[in-house]
Amino acid sequence: MTASKRIVLSSDHAAIRHRQAVAAHIAAKGWEVVDIGPTTAESTHYPKHGEAAAQRVASGDCQLGIILCGTGQGIMMAANKVNGIRCGVCTDTFSARMIREHNDANMLSLGARVVGEGLALDIVDAFLAARFEGGRHATRVEMIKALEG
Ligand code: RB5
Predict the structure, then answer these.
(1) What angle do CA 40, 64, 129 make, to 5 degrees?
(2) Cα–Cα distance between 110 and 108 in angstroms, integer?
(3) How large is the C-alpha radius of gyration of the chain?
(4) Taking the model in full, what pTM does it have?
(5) Burial level of 70, CB count in 10 A (0-12/13-18/19+)?
(6) What domain count does the chain have?
């Protein structure tokens, strides 16, 4: 297994079942899944789970990350506060492909109360299959990086 196949997963209480489905789905495709929980359905705070997953990606421990909450929005906002993270919420496969091809996203966020499990897995597949195109998009991604604190 190469380091390029290592991916971190995290969620809040609203998305545990979706997260477990994503974990099983991508593990079956050969990804080394680092699932950092939580493991119980007890109410928790999405910012700390978004930040924890983002740190794994920002540090280089994991190449990519997938995070989930009820809408995917709050946990995405937290992850994007970590320098080096480019995370987008996706509710369709086109956006999931584009955030990698054009935005060089290294994290995907999903809303378990927004997309069903089947669509969520298709979105994950689109995200993982896509590659950054570079070129003019690299200039724009560098402009995003320049905004980091
Ligand atoms: C939890 O109730 C909910 O607020 C959270 O999962 C998420 O949707 C926040 O953005």
Answers:
(1) 110
(2) 7
(3) 14
(4) 0.96
(5) middle
(6) 1
- Taking only the tens place, the pLDDT of each residue in 30-53 is 999 999 999 999 999 999 999 999
* Pairwise CA distance, residues 146 & 32, whole Å: 31
Point out the catalytic residue in the list 18, 62, 69, 87. 69
Q: Is 14 in the pocket of ligand 1 (CB under 6 A)?
A: yes
The rounded percent of the chain whose pLDDT value lies above 90 is: 97
pLDDT digits 0-9 by tens, 124-135: 999 999 999 999
What is the domain range of residue 27?
A: 3-146
Q: How far is the CA of 14 from the centre of ligand 1 (A)?
A: 7
CATH number at residue 68: 3.40.1400.10
- Report CA(92)–ligand 1 centroid distance (Å): 19
Is residue 70 lining ligand 1, measured as CB closer than 6 Å?
yes
pLDDT of amino acid 48: 98
Distance of alpha carbon 13 from alpha carbon 82, whole angstroms:
22
Using an 8 Å Cβ cutoff, are 31 and 7 in contact? yes
pLDDT exceeds 60 at position 4: no
